Amino acid sequence: MQFGKHFIDLSQPHVMGILNVTPDSFSDGGKHANVKQALEHALRMIDEGATFIDVGGESTRPGAPDVSLQEELDRTIPVIEAVSKNTDCVISIDTSKADVMREAVRAGAGLINDVRALQEPRALQAAAEAKVPVCLMHMQGQPRTMQDNPVYEDVVKDVGQFLLQRAQICEEAGISKDAILFDPGYGFGKSLEHNYALVKHLPTLMALGYPVLVGMSRKSMIGNLLNRKVDERLAGSISLATIVAQMGAQIIRVHDVKETADAVNIVKMLNLVK
């Protein structure tokens, strides 16, 4: 798949490193708040095996407050410019705002990663004009309230139908089918059982015909099951990354790049062995 100036072969799994330039993200808020720190962390993740760096300027953890357009631009654009200038990785912009999408792609981003699946005002048009791939994520509700009481008739079917509907709308707006990825949205308006059903049945979503990006790193679906605090979820995160890599997930979005890349490289080796 072509991501801006980079072509990435998605026949094998890739690691996406998370670069949150926010003061309040659930796991690493405030750690990479200035450009120098953010660039250093990006360089470290690339060295550890990340193909993608996902830059986010608005926390989407449960209960997160909204961030103004200007604040999100101020947080993300200088970081994208610095990472683009100093590295050769694919930069992803984690945003739902049309103007942030436009400016981020101008600054060097090669992927738009939107937790709201281009449903915000003008986002669809901005993404279509940007001419880079888009990742559409499923979320029931909004971050502030999404975990209050999520209900589905059939979570796997419901998520799949939503993503297919959004893909159709994107294609009608001029976004090529081969420039669309799906994200089931682990932890976004899902109970513990919903999340693990979406892990178990990930091949069903992959069979819809679009590459899949998954993000489960350090999330409460690990903490609540294993009774582990955020900084004690590495083993659970690696377990899930290994499982979905073996299932064929194309991009795995994580905080702990080095450890995840080791696991993914073992899966790649298994894929190569006759």
Structural description of this entry:
The chain is an alpha/beta fold and about 270 residues long. Helix content is about 45%, strand content about 15%. It has a single domain, classed as Dihydropteroate synthase-like (TIM Barrel). Strands 8-7-6-5-4-3-10-9 form an eight-stranded parallel β-sheet. A two-stranded antiparallel sheet has the order 1-2. The longest helix is centred in the first third of the chain and has 18 residues, at about 70-85.
Fraction of helical residues = 40-55%
In total, the number of domains comes to 1
Strand content: 5-15%
Structural class: alpha/beta
Radius of gyration: 17 Å
The helix tally amounts to 10
- Residue runs with pLDDT of under 50 for 5 or more positions: none
CATH class: Alpha Beta
Instruction: Going across the biggest sheet, name each strand in turn.
Output: 8-7-6-5-4-3-10-9
Tell the overall outline: globular
Average of pLDDT:
94
> What's the total count of β strands?
10
Q: State the separation between the terminal residues, measured CA to CA.
A: 26 Å
The CATH topology name reads TIM Barrel
Sequence of secondary-structure elements? EEEHEHEHEHEHEHHEHHEH
Short structural summary:
The chain is of the alpha/beta class and 274 residues long.
Secondary structure layout plus pairing:
Blueprint lengths: L1 E2 L2 E2 L6 E7 L14 H14 L3 E5 L12 H18 L3 E5 L3 H10 L3 E4 L8 H8 L3 E4 L17 H18 L7 E4 L8 H9 L1 H5 L6 E2 L5 H7 L7 H14 L3 E4 L2 H16 L2
Parallel strand pairs: 3-4, 3-10, 4-5, 5-6, 6-7, 7-8, 9-10
Antiparallel strand pairs: 1-2
